[in-house]
Amino acid sequence: MVKKLLNLHEEVTHSRLKVACSEWGATVFVKVRTADVLPIESSGIPAADFRFALRSHFDFVVCDAEHTPLFVVEFDGPSHDKPDQARRDIQKNSLCERFQFPILRINARYLVRKYGTFDLLSWFVHVWFLADGFRKAQEQRTVPANEIFDPAFVVSVSGIRGLFPLWLSAQPLIEIQRLNKAGRCQDFCPSYFIGLDEAGTYRAIAYLGITEDSGTFVTTAMRSQLFPFADSEILHEILMQEVYERILRTIAGEEGPVPLCEIHRLVREYQQRYRLASAGWLGSS
User: Fold this and answer.
1) Higher confidence at residue 174 or residue 200?
2) Strand-strand pairing, 69-75 and 103-106
3) Residue pLDDT, tens place only, 235-263
4) Domain range enclosing 211
5) CA atoms 284, 168, 219, 273: torsion sign
């Protein structure tokens, strides 16, 4: 029997990519050799990198209507934690960085969890195409050169329901404010800290006071991406939803509250251990 090109998670990734990319007139190719995407010929890269590009492949390559590669997506399953695979991932990232080519690394969380109407993979795809259109508009001077692209400011996206659909934290933050006004929680907005560890992974903690001396918190992490967006910004969006979900479970009695002194101790540990990337102290401090 011949081998399957894609495993189960890769099949789901391919399906989501095709749907999201088709809305922008882009196509998705699977298992494309690295050397067929990156211009390694006469590039001056080390011989080891050259050989690696000849024998390695990208999981998914997104191309425009003229079959020009735009960016690649790699699905990192459990095997990517093994030393040999981790070394190959670093080498592939290094090649993409050398040629300034976007690479998005995802895992199952990017497919399973919903944030508003999006899974994270679909969100990244839409943001990439919108940001690319924004950049082109700036080159054509139809958008001021000093204007900053922010997905949260996009009012609508064709084919997607609702206003500001890319602002993932909008609804969770609104619901938290409603809980605060109803006296169900002490703070009107979560506080958070996002830091960067030595391996280039973002580590984050967010919390919200429920009473004067107790609250709830979440922690999460995301590896730094070679993709045109601010890692800390999307991590903030994820934090806000996860805090909201934790609040609901705590208020419902499904989880117990945590003393604020304990939460503050954990926050201080994050501050001491990781280099600051982003923070907001909007609630209990």
Assistant:
1) 174
2) parallel
3) 999 999 999 999 999 999 999 999 999 99
4) 169-280
5) negative
Structure tokens at 10: 């890769």
- Look at the chain and count its residues: 285
> CA 130, 227, 30, 13: dihedral to nearest 10 degrees?
-80
The per-residue b/e assignment along 105-135, b for 16 or more CB within 10 angstroms, e otherwise, is bbbeebbeeebbebbbbbbbbbbbbbbbeee
Instruction: Indicate the number of domains in the chain.
Output: 2
**Phi-psi group of 115: left, alpha or beta (phi > 0 → left; psi -120 to 50 → alpha; rest → beta):** beta
Tokens of 99: 């040629």
User: Which residue type, as a one-letter code, is found at position 204?
Assistant: A
User: Which pair of structure tokens corresponds to residue 112?
Assistant: 């399973």
Q: Are residues 108 and 185 in the same domain?
A: no
Cross-strand bridge partners of residue 217: 207
Alpha-carbon torsion (258, 260, 262, 265), positive or negative: positive
- For the whole model, what pTM was predicted? 0.90
Which residues, 6 or more positions from 271, have their beta carbon under 8 angstroms from its beta carbon?
193, 195
